[in-house]
């Protein structure tokens, strides 16, 4: 009698979405800083960094280093309790910036039973609630370090951008080569994530 042959297991499918510029129409990080600290405080920190900021925009300076300096100057020693309440408020405010086509694609992946992972350089402070409300099972993003009851001015685990996005996915999911990955991004910071996907989509939701 012929023995039944084992059937191959279906490959697990993952949909990894960047947030700023991909699901949202714009950057959400700076608006959060203005919400949490006020315009005067944020501009007083940004102005001395203006030269470096211009070099970042021209691709001549490190975006990660600039962000680290900005966070250090704003968050160091600030009580966590003073900033945390602004997270849900910002999440609610930026809902009007979400791209309808991106939301429809997220819903399509959910209907297919795919694992939804948001992978963003933006802050957990406001992405946590938003990712959950949009139906993402996992959130990989930039987190702020704490020392006691205050922020320590550092990014815990680094900025979730570029190769760090792939590293975080590997930590969460294991061997990525064993997965069917759909990746959605809109910038150079998503390049490595798009490269490891069988189904990469660069700026797919823009008209």
Automatic annotation (TrEMBL):
The keyword Cell cycle does not apply. SUPFAM superfamilies: HAD-like (SSF56784). InterPro entries: HAD-like_SerB, HAD-like_sf, HAD_hydro_SerB1, HAD_sf. The lineage of its organism: Bacteria, Pseudomonadati, Pseudomonadota, Gammaproteobacteria, Chromatiales. One of its GO terms (molecular function) is hydrolase activity. Keywords: Hydrolase. This is HAD hydrolase, family IB. Pfam families: HAD. It comes from Thiorhodovibrio winogradskyi. The keyword Ribonucleoprotein does not apply. PANTHER family: HAD-IB FAMILY HYDROLASE (PTHR43344:SF14), PHOSPHOSERINE PHOSPHATASE (PTHR43344). Coiled coil: none annotated.
